[in-house]
Amino acid sequence: MSTDQPTAKSATESVAEMKKRFLSLERSADSLSWAAAAYRLGMATAEQPSAHPEQNLREALGHYQQAAKVLTIERAPVEHARVLNAAGSAHRMLGDPGTASRLFREALGLMAGRGFAAEEASVLNNLGLVLSEGGYLDDAIDAFTKSLEMVPGRNDEQVRTILATKHNLGQVHLASGGLDGCNAAIAVLSDAATTARGTDASMHTAMIDHSLGIAWKAKATHDPDALDHHIGEAIVAFQQCLTVFTSVGFPMQHAIAKHNLGHALAAKDDVASLQRAIAHYEDALNIFDPRLHQQLWQEAFVNAEAVETRLELVAPGATRADHIATLAGSMDDTERLMFVRQRLAQMERLPKANQIERLTEWSYAVITQPPESFVASIRTLITVLMELPETLLESALESQLAAHAMLDKHDQRAADFVLDEAINALLFGPQRIRVRDILEDIGWDRP
Question: What is the span of the domain harbouring residue 59?
Fold first, then answer.
């Protein structure tokens, strides 16, 4: 008997299979089933990941038109409304807000009073989105508010609709500007965040926390007398969203949140906050590709330079790596472990030559710190090394020795001794042998 397990189909394969089934149906044999299949195929086509989303959306509109010819207003008003809602979403994504708004309003008219409050709420949310994108903020707020009034919130899907709508409402309040807009946004988003944390909707939770951080940061601008409090709340919100928006799972969202966290920290004046800001800006720069994300990369680069200029006043001549090494040395063991682990993991994306250059700069900054900071960071580094892929482990050790070679003879032997002690204390037999073999192959003369 075969032990092969069925494999999940890709989105492209699933859509192709749906299309094949649809084409096999005869409209004349069962027009309602044919129309329902056309509608489902349109939805799947519109949502299919693609390098050419416009093509998919236009194809989806064709399927919606097929469905609407059977699911007419007279024959199936609610089903016709669902088709209009789907078509409105496609027109919105295609940059046609006028048509989208008209279709959403028509759908609402057909659904009204028919006992489909949750679906009406979803259409109102879509209408609010297209209105907000067109700059009709008051009308958008009205649409989102009505949507929230209609959702019972009895099941997971309805709760997700509520969370998405509150998130949208908070963003529109913030876009309306001023202190009042910030306060309204914070009230809505804080309420949404509380609800979200009681669900398994982690993506919604992270998005809400991120927007909440932006709202608190904006409030600090309008209410400078309470800047420390508002910035503190922004920092907490950004840190919270980063527990979901990891660099592996959501790299772009992670980079944007890191940049905004850096921006919040840069609003403070103490050296440690500015050093943290530099570290977060650099994390964002390591993910943003200047060829693909030019504006985001440029903004993070300029903001990082501005913070470095401020730090130059208190630590003349210190490099970015120096500031980050100083920051690492000031952390407790748990925070430093997470910090170093993340910084080394980022290096895996780089070519070998770039890895060596960046890691050598970092290693040199670490070993030129005061002794207590240097020893603590080296011990953390050795712990993290064993988690790295072989190629990155070799690059890290090669860079460490290259940094040692930049010291005078006395300091080099002292650094070698600290490294050897950390290897002895923190690595088990096979790990210790593996690391020492790599170091000896590189040319290390063990003290």
Answer: 30-47+54-151
Which tokens is 311 given? 């730090």
Q: What is the DSSP string of 318-337?
A: --HHHHHHHHHHHS-HHHHH
- In sequence order, the 6+-apart residues with CB closer than 8 A to the CB of 394 are 438
What is the CATH number for 444? 1.20.140
Instruction: Tell me how far apart the alpha carbons of residues 284 and 288 are, in angstroms, rounded to a whole number.
Output: 6
Q: Which of 121, 151, 181 is the last residue of a domain?
A: 151
Last residue of one domain, picked from the residues 108, 124, 151: 151
Residues 423/416, Cβ–Cβ less than 8 Å? no
The residue type at 421: E
Give the mean pLDDT per block of 10 residues along the chain (447 residues). Answer: 53 85 86 92 89 90 95 95 97 96 97 91 96 96 95 81 94 96 98 88 92 98 96 98 92 96 96 96 92 93 96 94 94 94 85 90 94 92 88 92 94 93 90 91 88
Q: What does each C-alpha distance from 34 to 18, 22, 30, 53, 327 come to in angstroms?
A: 12, 7, 6, 25, 64
- Using CA atoms of 232, 237, 243, 247 in order, give the dihedral in degrees to the nearest 10: -90
**Do 236 and 255 meet the contact criterion of CB atoms below 8 Å apart?**
no
How many Å separate Cα 55 from the centre of its chain? Answer: 27
How many residues comprise the chain?
447
* Residue 37: CATH number of its domain: 1.25.40.10
Specify the pTM.
0.86
Domain assignment present for residue 437? The answer is: yes
- Residue 37, domain member (yes or no): yes
Task: Give a yes or no: residue 8 inside a domain.
Answer: no
Distance of CA 421 to the CA centre of its chain: 39
Query: Left if phi > 0, otherwise alpha if psi is -120 to 50, otherwise beta: which for 370?
Result: beta
The per-residue pLDDT for 70 is 94
